[in-house]
Design brief:
This is Sialate O-acetylesterase domain-containing protein. It comes from Bradyrhizobium cosmicum. GO terms for molecular function: hydrolase activity, acting on ester bonds. By secondary structure, the protein is of the alpha/beta class. It has a single domain, classed as SGNH hydrolase (Rossmann fold). It is built from 7 helices and 7 strands. The radius of gyration is 17 Å and the shape is globular. It starts with about 45 loop residues before the first strand and ends with a helix.
């Protein structure tokens, strides 16, 4: 096993340590990796690649969370090691809490799937549009390519991918969003990733939802092509679920927990 020391050279799978506007990612491996690092034969393990913007795959809620199950774990795409999924998780932007860590616990506890261990690899970037993630001209596509290379180096292949994004596409038409997401999926499939991809309906910001984006997200679902419906996270409204800061887009701890519950149900429905 090779764990990359951050700042060392050369890193064969480099990922940027700041986003397109200079905000830092939580990349420092200041924690002790869990043991075992490898997949245990006979233990049903879900490897989860989480992609999206701030609410989807970043650390932006207002409550830190410590996982209740030691099998709830976090793959850091910056150094290739697996850690506890306590927040803030490593590999994505932000230093607060998130729903992903909570969902690791819930997926193991639900009984609606076979998973006994969940390893989440979050690579989200706040404030980003769907077009920025697509392989055709997308400035963030390389994050997906690098994440795959890092996972490959550890012998890990995602069991499923979640896509939770949309708040920043307030000027994007339904057709444009659909085209960018289709290009993103095609790029992921071209990498050899044929696992289920879940897409949520996620657009709420400032108390307003985006009908064109929601329509594109709903229409993208195609079970035959391995594209499955995630939850409608726009249903999580009000001060109980959303922080006043961040244009009312970011979750509170309560909202993150509710989001994790919705996502667990969506994933359980497929597995």
């Amino acid at each position: 096993m090779q764990i990359i020391t951050l700042g060392s050279a050369p890193d064969p799978y480099p990922m940027p340590t700041a986003d397109i506007v200079g905000n830092l990612f939580n990349v420092q491996s200041y924690r002790t990796p869990v043991q075992p690092q490898a997949i245990v034969p006979g233990e049903n393990t879900a490897v989860w690649l989480a992609i999206g913007q701030s609410t989807g795959a970043c650390n932006n809620d207002d409550t830190q969370y410590s996982v209740t199950n030691p099998k709830s774990q976090n793959f850091n795409c910056y150094d290739g090691a697996i850690y506890s999924a306590d927040t803030p998780t490593l590999g994505c932007q932000g230093f607060g809490g998130n729903w992903n860590s909570r969902a690791c616990d819930k997926l193991i506890a639900s009984g609606g799937n076979p998973f006994k261990r969940v390893i989440c690899a979050p690579i989200g970037v706040g404030g980003t549009t769907v077009a920025q993630w697509r392989p055709t001209g997308g400035v963030l596509w390389q994050r997906i390519v690098s994440a795959k290379a890092r996972l490959d180096s550890r012998g890990l292949t995602p069991t499923f991918i979640t896509w939770m994004q949309g708040e920043s596409d307030f000027t994007t038409t339904q057709a444009a969003y659909a085209a960018s997401f289709a290009d993103l999926v095609s790029g992921i499939r071209a990498l050899g990733y044929n696992m289920p991809i879940f897409i949520s309906q996620t657009t709420l910001q400032g108390g307003v939802t985006l009908s064109a984006v929601r329509a594109a997200q709903a229409a993208a679902v195609n079970n035959g092509a391995g594209i499955y419906a995630g939850p409608d996270t726009d249903t999580l409204t009000g001060a109980t679920n959303r922080q006043a800061s961040g244009n009312n887009a970011h979750f509170t701890g309560v909202g993150s927990d509710a989001c994790a519950t919705l996502w667990t149900a969506a994933i359980d429905a497929v597995f």
